[in-house]
Amino acid sequence: MTQDWPRHPAEAIRSYRERGFREDRPLSGLLREQAARRGDRLALVSRSTRLTYAELDSRVDRLAHGLAALPVRAGERVLVRLPNREEYVLTLFALLRIGAVPVLALPALGPAEVESLAATAEACALVVADRHGRTDPRAEALRIAERLPHVRHVLVAGDPGDAPARSLDSLLSQDAAPRPEAARPEDLALLLLSGGTTGTPKLIPRTHADYGYNARASAQACAVDSDTVYLAVLPVAHNFTMVSPGIMGVLGAGGTVVLSPDPSPTTAFALIEQEGVTLTSLVPALVPSWLDEARRTPERPSSLRVLQVGGSRLDEVTARRIGPELGCTLQQVFGMAEGLNNYTPLDAPEEVVCTTQGRPLSPADEILIVDEDDTPVPPGVPGELLTRGPYTLRGYYRAREPDSLRFTPDGFYRTGDLVTRTPDGDLVVVGRVKDQVNRAGEKIAAVEVEEHLLALPGVRASAVVGMPDPHLGERSVAFLVAEGPAPSREEIRAAMLRRGVAPFKVPDEVRTAPALPLTGVGKVDKRRLREEAGR
After folding, report:
1. Cα dihedral angle (336, 338, 342, 343), rounded to 10 degrees?
2. What integer best gives the mean pLDDT of the chain?
3. Which long-range contacts (C-beta less than 8 Å, at least 24 apart) are formed by 161-168?
4. CA 168 to CA 524: how far, in whole Å?
5. Is the domain of 83 the same as that of 186?
6. Which of 35, 280, 460, 526 has the fewest Cβ atoms nearer than 10 Å?
7. How far apart are CA 526 and CA 535, in angstroms?
8. By C-alpha distance, which of 312, 329, 316 is closest to 355?
9. What is the C-alpha to C-alpha distance for residues 428 and 447, in angstroms, rounded to an integer?
10. Rounded CA gap, 274 and 144, in Å?
């Protein structure tokens, strides 16, 4: 197969494998292994479907045979755009089993973004749901297939509608024998989407070896075992939900995965009680609604032991509420689909859990924190996080821009995250390199101001963006979501000055909003906020 992305150097791969930092089996092998060891244990719950490991493994084999008969060949890319339902897990593992490469697209993407990704990957098939909210993914997929000649198949979870689309159910061969794994550990396993909020996401290549290690090491860091019941609240195509430890880590440990059809706390709390959920993961934007639900509910979720929060920085005020109000342990997670994962230890002191975003997962993760000249900075000083390691990419798949813009010559990935490091090695996310307001030459980290705003009474959510200004270069605009009347700019200024904040960091303009717009992965969509501020 043509090499479409930079691999790790052979010497580095050999070293990682010798030290146990690469998996020696294809990803679909983890499901086969659990089916052999504990076939009668519950593996997957989705809506009314309940599958044991043996049943799940058998269905994956049947779908793998059906996909191969289409044919979908080893090495071909298949764009998968499904919500949280059992067909996602079946399709993912069936494609891995035949050596095909899933391209994991979020359901919230627009048709233009989906078409661009399908074109870049030269996808041979599109897998979509029959409906998603008010959209018709089937019709969108068929229109894309008409414009892209390499898209040979449109496959639908649910009603396929008009030909030539086909239902996934029609591919479940009834007489399929167990299928041998077609992929090798260092083969391309899947393509993830970068988490950027502007432009079309980039494609992130992950191999069976590096993604398998990522899942196993994350499961160990999060104390996942066969008794773990994991609730997938975030979109299943999100790297956080897939491998931190997510679906892959939990199934690899023999636990149970429960798919939530929506992220509402009402749905989630009911599933937690019904299924005895012990672990789940959220983005910070969802946490306040969970805390509100806990206040309204007579009994908080009794089985939940760990709530992971990641995807963006969780403010300290909210972090300190989670333990007392939800009755579970908070674990902060700071990671990226490109590789590096960081976790706060489950036994860490409250101060560490509530004020840092964790430490690197692997002993082989290499970390640099550098200034604008790529000079390392001392602990406590903000700088851009650079990283390389056994499960961090060395280059994007069919990159539209030179990899030299995001990678150093010696293979460190420029994350774009501004962080500090404590003397104990814990990372604190300060913001994004580009998430700054350059006001009259003074650099203002948006996340710092946002946390001061969240400390004000009644403020439920905040976001700060920079806007062009003829006198200041950029002015800062704060968007607030508040319970009751929002504080005025004068009140905000007085409160921030009392907290010892420099006057230039006080927002130049304050706006209120009923809610902050979110991207498909649950981050605040600052591009849309800038558009709103410019009106």
Report:
1. 60
2. 92
3. 161/130, 165/138, 165/141, 168/63, 168/87, 168/90, 168/91, 168/127
4. 34
5. yes
6. 460
7. 14
8. 316
9. 11
10. 40
Structural domain includes residue 344: no
pLDDT for position 402: 72
pTM: 0.86
pLDDT confidence band for 198 (50 / 70 / 90): very low
Q: What is the pLDDT of residues 74-109, one digit of tens each?
A: 999 999 999 999 999 999 999 999 999 999 998 888
443 in the same domain as 428: no
- What spatial distance separates the first Cα and last Cα of the chain, rounded to whole Å? 49
* CATH number (domain holding residue 391): 2.30.38.10
Indicate which CATH number applies to the domain containing 129.
3.40.50.980
Orientation of helix 446-454 relative to helix 316-326, angle to 10°: 50
14-53 pLDDT, tens digit each: 999 999 999 989 998 999 999 999 999 999 999 999 999 9
* pLDDT at residue 474 greater than cutoff 60: yes
CA distance 528 to 348: 37
Distances in Å between the Cα of 416 and the Cα atoms of 222, 290, 338, 385 are 26, 30, 12, 7
Same domain, yes or no: 461 and 423: no
Residue 65 belongs to some domain of the structure: yes
Tokens of 306: 């760990």
Residue 279 belongs to a domain: no
| Residues constituting the chain | 535
Instruction: Of 198, 260, 206, 203, give the one whose Cα is nearest residue 229.
Output: 260
Q: What pLDDT sits at residue 1?
A: 42
Q: Is residue 215 part of a domain?
A: no
Q: pLDDT of 259-318, one tens digit each?
A: 999 989 999 999 999 999 999 999 888 999 999 999 988 777 889 999 999 988 898 999
Q: Name the residue range of residue 474's domain.
A: 436-533
Q: Is the pLDDT of residue 61 over 60?
A: yes
Residue-level pLDDT at 503: 86
Picking from 440-454, 458-472, 507-521, which range would have the lowest pLDDT averaged per residue? 440-454
User: In 399-441, at which residue ranges do the beta strands (DSSP E only) sit?
Assistant: 413-421, 427-432, 436-439
Task: Give the CATH number for residue 479.
Answer: 3.30.300.30
In a shared domain, residues 126 and 143: yes
What six digits make up the tokens of 152? 């040979």
Are 430 and 482 in a shared domain?
no
Tokens encoding 317:
């005020």
